[in-house]
Amino acid sequence: MGINLLPAQWSKETRLVTKHPKKAFLNSYLTEMLVKGDEILMTEQKKQGSALTKNQIKELMSSLFCDCKKQKGDVTGVFQDMIKDKNKRKRTQELYAVTLKKIKTFVGKDADSLKFEDISPKWLKNFDEWLTKDCPHLNARAIHFRNLRAVFNKAIEDELTANYPFRKFKIGKEETRKRALSAQQLRELRAQKVEPHQQKYVDVFFLMFYLMGINAIDLLSATPEQVVNGRLEYKRAKTGTLYSVKLEPEAIQLIEKYKGKKHLLCFCDNMKSYRFFMNKMNKCMSELIPGCTSYYARHSVASIASELDVPLDTIARMLGHLDANRRVTLIYIDYNQNKVDEANRKVIDYVLYKKI
Questions:
Q1: Model's pTM, two decimal places?
Q2: How high is the pLDDT of residue 305?
Q3: Which one of 296, 324, 337, 342 is least enclosed by Cβ atoms within 10 Å?
């Protein structure tokens, strides 16, 4: 039936679950299955007009409980619900789909019948070792385990399972490596002669830098209408926070160079997904500077601002990093946006003109 109990959690006398946090639910489920079993046996016996044999009873009950177990603890089914959840961001849905695909590849042909009760701490450990082949970085694997843990939490909330292997399996985490270019590296990159097909990727990298490390999805999905009074106004896709960036002359020059109709940048007008462009951009940047991706622009802004003694609070505002407590506090504070604009100008001047 897909129910796992410790010996102390089962009473042989009453044949009921005891000393279990979900005992009420489990006993209700057991009673429901007994009633269904009786109904099936009586119906089949009435149909045959005679008593059932031991093997017939076994076959009928096996069929009943296997079907109920599949319905009750179907990992794929809950994953699909999470993927289709319209309240989740598209990127989050995509990540759940990737995790499910990884699990199906790991399990093989029996993936669709995988139950929550089949997943133990040992199973998770084996899955982690298998993931290492394609995901050598601990933080990358942690994403899949957090997704799976969320699916377990959803299943427990919906009373589909009482199993929770994450009590004994801890999701690992490693410190994110620094992904910033120094001011000198940025100067060299800007002065470097690149192939014509590479130039737009380098330009977009610097545009992201000039726009205080704007995220790729926010830049590539931006439209001309979002430019208001010399500022790019947008809502961060990641957090939903309203954001405003002053368009410095260097940024305006690049926007004019690649001016689009439907989008701020022309190569986004006919693009189905911003990820197609970013994959090509990251490949290009990595060829120019090993390991470099678009995200280096964001880290570089923060790193150089810190080097120039820009206050941490201002750097946080530049990157749009506001925790819940700070967001509430700022409702009562008219934050001086000029501080952020001045800090961004200071970073750009230092990199391009070596001014402090």
A1: 0.61
A2: 94
A3: 324
